């Protein structure tokens, strides 16, 4: 028996209450947090525990959801991936991904993205995935190009972090492009 949520290196799974500690620790690397979205004021351990408990109890949605990226071998959390901006009429969705700094460059992000796209394309009938990447995030730009995403556009000076404005680069992949490469 094989799970659709398991790849070569990772498994995607729901949040468990005990995951709070890993995600709390990931927030300590401000540069990594900025490259994924935005830096927030520090949170307490109690708030991190509450967040994890609330997510663990949340009823899943078929199209808009957040999953933990966990190592395949020991199920330890290394990051998260989520879907958003779901447009059922157009058949498009966007996703965001974050991997904790100690787990960078181990193939976890790429594996998680391929699993997510397979589900959204072949189980939920979407036809296109989109991802916005900040122009200073060289690792993510390289990853999306390597995975076969096409650079579709650029929003100039649309993100502000660490005292400077930067561009957002839009990447897209259609189901046909995914199928040609991964199916």
Q: What spatial order of strands do you see in the largest sheet?
A: 1-2-3-4-5-7-6
CATH class: Alpha Beta
CATH architectural designation: 3-Layer(aba) Sandwich
Please give the share of residues in helix: 25-40%
- As a percent range, the share of strand residues is 25-35%
Oligomer: single chain
Any idea how many domains? 1
> Tally the helices: what do you get?
6
Mean of residue pLDDT values:
95
Separation of the first and last Cα atoms: 19 Å
CATH topology: Aminopeptidase
Structural class comes to alpha+beta
Name given to the CATH homologous superfamily: Gcn5-related N-acetyltransferase (GNAT)
Care to count the β-strands? 7
From N to C, what is the helix and strand string?
EHHHEEEHEHEEH
Shape: globular
What low-confidence regions span 5 or more consecutive residues with pLDDT below 50? Answer: none
Q: Rg, please?
A: 16 Å
Largest sheet: 7 strands, mixed
Organism: Nonomuraea turkmeniaca
Pfam family, one: Acetyltransf_3
InterPro entries: Acyl_CoA_acyltransferase, GNAT_dom
Protein name: GNAT family N-acetyltransferase
Provide an overview of this structure:
This protein is an alpha+beta fold and 183 residues long. It has one domain: 3-Layer(aba) Sandwich (Aminopeptidase), CATH 3.40.630. Helix content is 33%, strand content 32%. The chain contains six helices and seven strands. The protein has helices spanning 20-26, 30-36, 45-57, 108-122, 138-147, 175-182; strands at residues 10-13, 66-71, 77-87, 92-99, 128-134, 150-161, 164-174. The protein has a seven-stranded mixed beta sheet with strand order 1-2-3-4-5-7-6, sandwiched between helices. Helix 1 crosses helix 3 (45-57). It is globular and about 45 Å long.
